[in-house]
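Checklist before submission:
- one chain only
- standard amino acids only
- sequence pasted in full

Submission:
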Amino acid sequence: MRRWHLKNSQLLDSKQSVPGSVASLALDLESVRELFNREANASTNSRKVHGQLQDCLAEDGDPNLVFDRAHQIVEEGLYDWFGNLQKIAGEFVTNLATIALGYPEPLNEDPASWARSRIKEFLDGWLDGLWSPQIVIWFHDAWGGPYLGCDEYDSWCAPTWVEKSRELTNDPANLDERITPERTEKLFRYWRRKFDMLLDHGLEQAEHTTRVNLALQRAPRAATNQVWTPDIESTIPAEGRKLLVRAGARKYRSPLKRAIRLRLTQQPNATDRRVCGWLDDEGAEEVPTAWVKNGDRTFLTVYEDPSRKHKIESMINKVRGDMRSQGLL
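Returned file contents:
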């Protein structure tokens, strides 16, 4: 049986003999976990992918095109499933952090961080599966349909087009050729690591957003007399956001300036070059049309071009100067 033991597996047991509010927290936590598992089970799209594969493999076209299309269907289906799980996990971080506010003494830590850790545990436990890992079940059900026994999951080997192992396929028309059990296991582990990476990123963003939302709920509106809009600033960690609120930080109309301020809030010592690299990597904002040269639309290229460097440099310096004058840097 394929089972992988993952970190962060220690969950508070609701059956333990614990006093008062700790016991209530444990019961709430168990209820949230049960609800999370139901939502996660409903997130799978393997049936939909199975139908798409059936239609694809039944086509009479060029076998090479069918081979490539089948692989594309599986890959797109997996990323779609990732997205579903990421959204569910993010919503549960927010809900669990709100619940945690009612247990300040037994919790004794930041509610957003605590909620993220618990949802990570739920997610790992669900992905690991009671009988077989969810990633194994998804691949098998997407290929052959649902409702097969655990033994069949354990012995299943992926078709070559799932891994896109064209070098194993002497006859491209033989779309049922399989890779070895070892390569199938490697395939599962590859996608599980991919899952962990993408889902961890989503949980991190959910933690930051939740922390900000909780801080705004507690903060008196009179402190700023302004409403924060759900833009890129929603990803600022709590400490930086509190500074912005307390100092009455200037509200920029320019999305690019807001993005630059976000990066300087996260990394106060970031150089202009690093800020430009972050803008490109995150895709936070597009290079202004007037700055584009020879079709290149990256901030780093603008920064490295002597004729255009002053444009982005002066904007970063402006934001940095404003933040310094407000005591934010």
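Reviewer check: Residues 1-20, 220-249 have pLDDT under 50 and may be disordered.
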